[in-house]
Write a sequence for this structure.
């Protein structure tokens, strides 16, 4: 079994993605004690809000053409490099038009976004090259070029951290948030420029109406889907920053960054899952998909529980007491990310069938619910309720996509029982954690007991094999 697994390109890719993403987030976590001490909670809040706008600009200004790259591999097998370079040029044109619009009304957008002009300029440049990098990484991912992906991500992460520390401590002592933003954006800008030249040199085609039409049909409906996903994940901190304060937004964002361990785990495994899933869908091999999906879900759940039960210690090591108020929202953030796993199983089916307009409907409904709940509840109950509203909206986002796939598209691969098991896993484990979160020894005892039990079952299974 082990030999077969090691031969699998999906397992190899998934392992590389997971190790790389955990390495990069590991760097972020190891440096959190540095940045939470170098930056005030207000500085931390400003950098977090900047990141939220960055994600929005990348999606909207590029028309989200990155979404067509992986699917295009299967429809333009013989001319894939030309397809990628042409789509990249399409996204570049769109980015230029949007950027000129922002610059023409700079004062208005600077005030609306609550960003000073220099941050707005950096944001536009950073967003463009982040788009380029995302597009190239999507190409490498579907080609299983996981080593190139790892090299780019690790280099950007390491250089970004080192550069940020230098800029904060030596050049931007009065505007430390600017040092942090420039330090993290410069490596992306440089690597993005190199990757831009690489794609155009390799593809040697920039204008192709067939490729552009294909990309736009898939991608444009997904703008609202991905934008809604970003709003669902990050509208809360923008709202907290604007109506409660940058300091509270900083505390909330720090706690969210701790919760992103789960998001990184999900993203890493899903990156490897999607190409394999597309291949099995092409072959109509639903039984293999169902079997592998259970393994995927169970592995993720085990990691989820392990990380959740040690999260209080992670926070106390990573930051000083100014940020410890964020402890209370971490389990809710973890749960929200678990629902991302659940809904991604169904969304991947929608992606494969190219029903991207339906994807947007499900995600928009979830994001709209989150925005309404945030507007109604955050001013009254503070930033803690924002984490709870994210859990609620992410769960309903899963429900919406489940209904779309199973009842509108009438494609039933995973089934309600599969998802009910997932739901029971996350609810029970989170409730247990909430009961014992203040008792470290009890949490450790539960973890050790659970691991011993799982090991005994796994060992018995192997002996039968």
């Amino acid at each position: 079994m082990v030999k077969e697994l090691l031969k699998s390109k999906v397992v190899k890719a998934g392992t590389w993605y997971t190790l790389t993403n955990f390495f990069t987030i590991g760097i972020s976590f190891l440096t959190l004690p540095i940045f939470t001490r170098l930056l005030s909670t207000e500085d931390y809040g400003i950098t977090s809000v900047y990141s939220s706008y960055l994600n929005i600009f990348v999606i909207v200004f590029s028309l989200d053409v990155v979404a067509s790259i992986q699917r295009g591999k299967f429809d333009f097998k013989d001319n894939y490099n030309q397809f990628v370079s042409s789509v990249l040029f399409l996204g570049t044109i769109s980015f230029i038009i949007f950027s000129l619009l922002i610059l023409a009304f700079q004062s208005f957008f600077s005030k609306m976004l609550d960003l000073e002009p220099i941050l707005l300029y950096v944001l536009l440049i950073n967003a463009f090259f982040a788009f380029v990098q995302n597009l190239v990484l999507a190409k490498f991912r579907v080609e299983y070029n996981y080593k190139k992906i790892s090299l780019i991500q690790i280099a950007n992460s390491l250089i970004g951290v080192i550069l940020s520390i230098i800029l904060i401590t030596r050049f931007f002592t009065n505007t430390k948030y600017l040092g942090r933003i420039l330090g993290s954006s410069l490596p992306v800008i440089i690597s993005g420029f190199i990757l831009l030249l690489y794609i155009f040199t390799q593809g040697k085609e920039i204008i192709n109406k067939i490729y552009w039409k294909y990309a736009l049909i898939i991608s444009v409906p997904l703008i609202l889907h991905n934008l809604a996903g970003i709003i669902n994940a990050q509208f809360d901190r923008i709202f907290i920053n604007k109506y409660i304060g940058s300091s509270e937004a900083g505390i909330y964002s720090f706690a969210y960054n701790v919760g992103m361990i789960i998001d990184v785990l999900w993203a890493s495994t899903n990156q490897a899952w999607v190409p394999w899933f597309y291949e099995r869908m092409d072959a109509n091999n639903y039984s293999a998909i169902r079997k592998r999906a259970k393994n995927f879900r169970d592995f993720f759940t085990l990691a989820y529980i392990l990380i959740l039960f040690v999260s209080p210690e992670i926070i106390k090591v990573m930051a000083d007491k100014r940020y410890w108020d964020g402890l209370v929202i971490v389990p809710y953030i973890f749960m929200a990310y678990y629902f991302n796993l659940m809904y991604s199983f169904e969304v991947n089916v929608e992606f494969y069938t190219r029903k991207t307009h339906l994807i947007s409907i499900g995600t928009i409904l979830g994001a709209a619910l989150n925005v309404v709940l945030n507007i109604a509840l955050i001013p009254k109950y503070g930033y803690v309720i924002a984490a709870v509203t994210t859990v609620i909206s992410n769960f309903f986002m899963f429900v919406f996509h489940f209904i779309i796939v199973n009842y509108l598209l009438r494609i039933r691969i995973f089934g309600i029982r599969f998802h009910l098991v997932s739901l029971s896993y996350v609810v029970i484990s989170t409730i247990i954690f909430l009961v014992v979160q203040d008792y470290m020894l009890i949490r450790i005892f539960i973890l050790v007991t659970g691991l011993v039990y799982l090991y005994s079952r796994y060992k018995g299974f192997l002996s039968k094999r």
About this structure: Confidence is low (pLDDT under 50) at residues 460-465. The chain is about 85% helix and 0% strand. The radius of gyration is 22 Å.
